[in-house]
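Notes on consecutive records. When two proteins share a document, each keeps its own sequence and its own token line. Never mix them. Below: protein one.
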Amino acid sequence: MLKPRSTPTREQVNLDGLWRFALDGAARPEPWKGPLDTRLEAAVPASYNDLFTDPAIRDHVGWVWYQRTARVPRGWTDERVLLRVDAATHEGRVYVDGVLVAEHVGGYTPFEADITGHVRAGDEFRLTIGVNNELSNVTIPPGTVTVARSGRREQQYKHDFYNYAGLARSIWLHSVPPVHVTDVTITTGLDGTTGTVGYSVETNSSAPVRVRALDADGAEVAAAAGATGALRIDGATPWRPGAGYLYELVIEVLDEDGGGVLDVYREPFGVRTVEVRGTEFLINGEPFYFTGFGKHEDAPVRGKGHDNAHLVHDFQLLEWIGANSFRTSHYPYAEEVLEFADRHGIVVIDETAAVGLNLAVQGGLTGRPHDPTWAPENFGAATRDAHARHLRELIARDKNHPSVVMWCLANESSSAEEGAREYFEPLVELTRELDPTRPITHTAWLGATGDNDLIADLFDVVTVNRYYGWYIANGDLEAAEQYLEHDLRGWVEKFGKPVMMGEYGADTLPGLHSVWDVPWTEEYQRAYFEMNHRVFDRFEAFVGEHVWNFADFATSNGIHRVDGNKKGVFTRDRRPKSAAHALRARWTGLNGRKPR
């Protein structure tokens, strides 16, 4: 889905701000049919959970309602009027003056509706958006809704981060001409110093198309006619990690005579290549070593609400610490995040919201038999269909971002359990069909090893999450080092692919110190990382290290999490722990090269 952009033929109105807000049942039975009867107002974009002091709102399970009025600009009389929701977590319904115009399931990808037939240029209309946070065995991520003895509905889920909900990203009103571009796909390559740019443009109606490539200064460097084709940019400046050089593809839809311009759309792109060769991960033909983090869209008060101030500061901290990459754990991040990474040369592993597809974790924690993960009553064909839809939407949204170098299909699924291959093989095939240009991966949990994993051979890069010294051999880093080396050696020798660490970390309370290796202290977190790094550096096939986590983040209530997950090397308000300085000393000297 194309992101709304302002061009000579397109305009947009941002609808962010304060919206009327109510829980389902607190207003009229059908709240979209009239003005929302409430005194509450909620910020958009923001998760609603932490905005209010009422625990009934924070812990609500089910639908909530947002409402405001909007006005269509007078100049849009002859235009198509579209309404776009950047995300509604986890399900959304949109009503214009009481008429349902759009529905969508999936909390982290956009959806839109053509509302031309429901509004008039210059007039005001009532916009109501319902958002439902319920998760089930056929949603991504999955969950279960239960009813407590008190009668209160409760949401259970398998992922270890708080289930923030609401309108966490922007809402847009935008116009397009009657004949317009609906999609564009850009693929790039390097032929010596020449950049090759393949393009494919889709329009809503048959019409001539021409394209022009502009460099960063706005100078035309290539042009072609036709909806599909290839451009060559002599002396191209490649997009590189740390140097995010961008070109722009200007797409023009013409009238039948070829003289008048009906629509203009502009899409930034970078010229670069990505491939896996043997045990190396290559960007522009050069070996690349990932340094960075698993992150979260997580902040006090706003929850998962997108915030440009946090965006800028987080990227400043990535630069300060020497990180060259991050994984969008465990869901697609806001498009603004990827655009920023494009401009600043930060490498991204882009992940679906498929986290929690693992009932074996219960067995690992309790020592008791667990329900089968890959079963129709748990995660079967219906779940896989939802997963496939998420993949289609993720790739459709993010396919043109040069910062995105790899797709991650899921986090810590039960990949050693019977049925895993039947579940994942069709998803792998779909991903390669949708985008044959990028490698793919999947992160393996602690219960999956090189000996018992059933799906690692399907992927280009073996990514493992390991917590030796924390969940296993806690406080005994000598034993943890032996376990980790044995574990990684099994993956390297079994699959002959690049291997990287998707997560490794230890919970740490800022300000807690000790002269001994005591878990939860800042000294232990540093020693834990030093142990891991010694092991990583012993393997030629090892291609990267992503610390869990960039910053402390909110989790669900539980006796094992005091005020959230504390594995961040920065606190939730972005103050560095001691380990941040140690990582900076290691990473700033690497510059994307493997440690020697």
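Protein two starts on the next line and is unrelated to protein one.
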Amino acid sequence: MLKGPQGTLFGRNVTGGAIVINTRQPDPERLAAEGDVTVGDHGERQARGFVNVPLGERAALKLATSVRQRDGLGRDRLTGREQDDIDSQNFRAQALFNVSDALTATVSADYSDDRNGGRTLSSDTLGDDGDVRTSELGIAQRFARIIAGASAKLVWRMPQGEITSITAYRKSQSGETYSGVGASYTLLTTGSQSITSDADQIHTLSQELRYASPKWAAGDFVTGLYYADEDGDRQLATRGLTVRTGVLASSTLANQSVQSRSVAVFVDGVVHLPAAFDLTLGARYTRDRKTASLTRSDLLRPTSNFTVTDLSGSWSEVTPRAVLSWTPRTGLMTYLSATRGFTSGGYNADASSAAVFRTAFDPETVNNFELGIKSQWLQNRLRVNASIFRMNYREKQELVNNTLSGVLAIFNAGKATMKGGEFEVAYKANSWLDLTGSYSHLDGRYDSFVLGTVNNSGNPLSNAPRKQVSTAANISIPMSFGYAVAAASYAWKDSYNTGAANDPNLQLPSFGLANLSAGIESRDRGWRLLAWVKNANDTDYLLTRSTQVVRARYAGEPRTFGISLAARY
């Protein structure tokens, strides 16, 4: 997990941090398999597993899959249709070839298919029956998404360093029909019920070429090139149904197309200084170009139709990074870092007029300063990490509704500041008990954000809880048959607002969730049987709110329980 702006070490640049997931590589030296099955309430059924097959002494094949189904947690009481159900299938194949002692090739392909009956957006005003697990939408919602991809990774190891090439292609297509208003037109007294059909298809090709130097006594460095080519097409149809009658009040269709090209060069290196100090310096140059087209048809008011093709803009930025760290002993490091992040500008393809579409939003930049410590104590039984940071945004990109134009689009907040701190501790109390805990504090504000007559300056940053706390315990007690195992965790999140305007109707209350599990495990760790419960305290909590025509809310999952059996070979 990499916090803050990234882009000098590998791949695409980001402003808010990155989670790097490295799957287990195929192993030519052994035949292996792992799997688990889960059953639970609400019709929960899940199976996951992989098999690793050696193909001679220098190659191996690994196949992995995950299939999950669950009945709906919600229901539309006007149609009787299930919502918040799960029907998911995922497959991945990886092949590793040790072409020579110096050259390794890994080829992978994956496919996933997810479907459900939409989310339970439940009115808490008109038509409300007091149950957040029922909606009053009255339409056949649906969601379907297919994602597929392939990649080839080549690693060439030499005395002079290591060269890595990663070529990847990914395609996704999705379709969704949903009501943006939390109540059926049959219940409304004003306005209309908005129903949206959204279909998109995205193709992405990327190439990364990276060189990592040897670990010299004086330091080391990594440098590379990155290229990404993405084509996205979207068809967005929106209908408005008149109150009571359901007569078509509005009907628009937007055909959108955006092509994005990104090229970058990056370098990052560390120099070992006297007295256990290290100085890390890095920089990235990114140039992004986007070309956008939009054809918007108003089926009831053809005079509002317009077509704009081949709008084009490019944005570039140099984003440096500097870190001074001090490691007086093994297991103790303090650091001070300064990094800059960049997100390119673009065009609002949901614009309702040609003038709005032609007006590009500006790129976002952020300067992040962080002071922290990472440490291990008591023969590595205790880990304590802490940091404080400040992020200064310029032209921060925010998705908001412009009350003058009625357009939900990306606009720039001139200035914003996020400051805070994080503390985490992990303690191995004894051979059978592990304890962890964390606390974070955020203070985010829009320093300057004016949209027409609406002044959001001084408001808290949206979707930024001020406080978060988590704690967990893992137990593994030796027994005559093997081990008795258990786990408990609790996470609490402070209240926060989902909009820049700090509308009290969009405020989400604080909540805490507890998860528990207990079971047995064989002495050789070859199999495990667990009983589990999620949201054990059966907390009612909200994921989002809506104020479109009526006030509505979308609730998180209730308490669920089940049994899992896992085995490995």
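For the record: Residues 122 and 131 are 8 Å apart (CA to CA).
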